[in-house]
Design goal:
Strand content: 5-15%
CATH superfamily of the domain at 8-151 and 171-236: Spore Coat Polysaccharide Biosynthesis Protein SpsA, Chain A
Structural class: alpha/beta
Number of strands: 9
Number of helices: 12
Radius of gyration: 21 Å
Oligomer: single chain
Helix content: 40-55%
Strand order of the largest sheet: 3-2-1-4-7-6-8
CATH topology of the domain at 8-151 and 171-236: Spore Coat Polysaccharide Biosynthesis Protein SpsA, Chain A
Order of helices and strands: HEHEHEHEEHEHEHHEEHHHH
CATH class of the domain at 8-151 and 171-236: Alpha Beta
Low-confidence stretches: none
CATH architecture of the domain at 8-151 and 171-236: Alpha-Beta Complex
Shape: globular
Distance between the termini: 38 Å
Amino acid sequence: MVHGRLRGYKKIDSDEDVLLPVSVIICARNEEVNLEENLSFFLEQDYPDFEVVVVNDCSSDDSEFILKKFSEKYSNLKIVTLNEHDRYKHGKKFAVTLGIKAAQHEHLLFTDADCRPASLNWIRLMQQNFKGNTAIVLGFSPYKRSKGFLNVFIRFETFYTALNYLSFSLAGNPYMGVGRNLSYTKTLFFKCKGFASHMHILSGDDDLFVNENANRSNTVIEIDPESHTWSEPKKTWASLWKQKIRHMGAGKAYKSKHKRVLTIQAGSSIAFYVLLGVMSFMQIHWWVLLSIYFIRLIVQIIVYFPSMRKLKCKNLIWWFPILDLFYIFFIIVLGIGSSFKRKIQWK
């Protein structure tokens, strides 16, 4: 079982302490509130040589004023401003590309304006993985905890997604990363022609780039709790739906081998509940059905709980029986919904 890879993962500490220069890149569109609240935590990282490149992407709020105020205080802040064009409408990939071109350093570290690093060691922990052939570092970005089932589900879905892409990477088959906490080199970006092969897809500046260019020899993971970036979760089901529809659009462009594996993975979970339902109509003894269900549940908990502890979301285990079933229902509905959705946008 591939998920067992993360369960048993133990990072090997290195005696090396090479502090390579780093460019942190943040693309922001109408993010004045988040920039005001979070940007200083990136600018004040405990790291000797880094810059923060903020791409102000056609903002119509007071982002320009906020960034100007920060630039007067922090010399390591670089601002790239994009203005709206009447005829040409661009997505996030264009903004990210300009941020990369403006970056001074080889090692690039990506996050979003609504994120906040878990510690002042975020850059240090992500950067220290660039040894040997490493060109991509996959990090983890959990969502903040609040009240309500929506928040619980968002945090579970984020955990499960991370469990999947981190475990597959450890198995030598990396297929995606999350742009809220992702690092790669400028050389890799330009060598692989950036987002050229999927620029027509609005989303996927993170997962499609990783899917296309990551392999077992150039990709590693970083899950130290101090390396996380915490994000603000969606507040409504409608906004979550919009976000996930956008992500589904990118997923359709994954390599065929990854789409097959992920389809089989989701299909097996769906098939389990379908077969359990069919067996109940066949008047099979209730204790047999419960035994089958609880055997699977126990195995899942044994595998998942250590990973939940590593990713600092162990409280989700109490919701697991409900979340596992609801997650299956959600991806079925999402898959149906995405087949009818044609037009998507970044913000």
